[in-house]
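Dear Dr. L.,

I hope this message finds you well. Following up on our conversation about the binding site, I have prepared a predicted three-dimensional model of the protein together with DQA. For your records, I am including the exact sequence and ligand specification that went into the calculation, followed by the structure tokens. Please feel free to forward this to your student if that is useful.
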Amino acid sequence: MKILILNGPNLNLLGKREPSIYGNETFNDFFEALKKKYADVELHYFQSNIEGELIDKLHEVGFTFEGIIFNAGAYTHTSVAIGDAIKGIETQVIEVHISNVYAREKFRHVSYIAPNAKGVIAGFGLQSYELALQSFL
Ligand code: DQA
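The resulting structure of the complex is given below.
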């Protein structure tokens, strides 16, 4: 089973960025542990701060992979183009967030991804990604 974890802008700074909200662990450390725990899953990872690169990746894997776990960061709340890309592919997407976006500012309550996603998991720290993976499995 091929699953992509796709991270959007600023998520390369996990571990350093606003640790009171996003925690102290780097995504690389978390991803290495996840790969070990789910050794029979073909887990791929891609991060970009650039909207078009995220869209290119969705197009690239969106007809062959079994699932995409997508934290689009702030693009979640702004990107019609990413919403359209998810509509245009066949692979199901689960939207994830580290923080509980519904307990934060109002602009974070809007998602261009959710209407086109299988579901949304938010507020469980990095465990949000693992919960999404378990849902695909
Ligand atoms: C986030 C929530 C977004 O609102 C924010 O812009 C992020 C991270 C999260 O994982 O909690 O960059 O997607």
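In brief: The chain has five helices and five strands.

With kind regards,
A. P.
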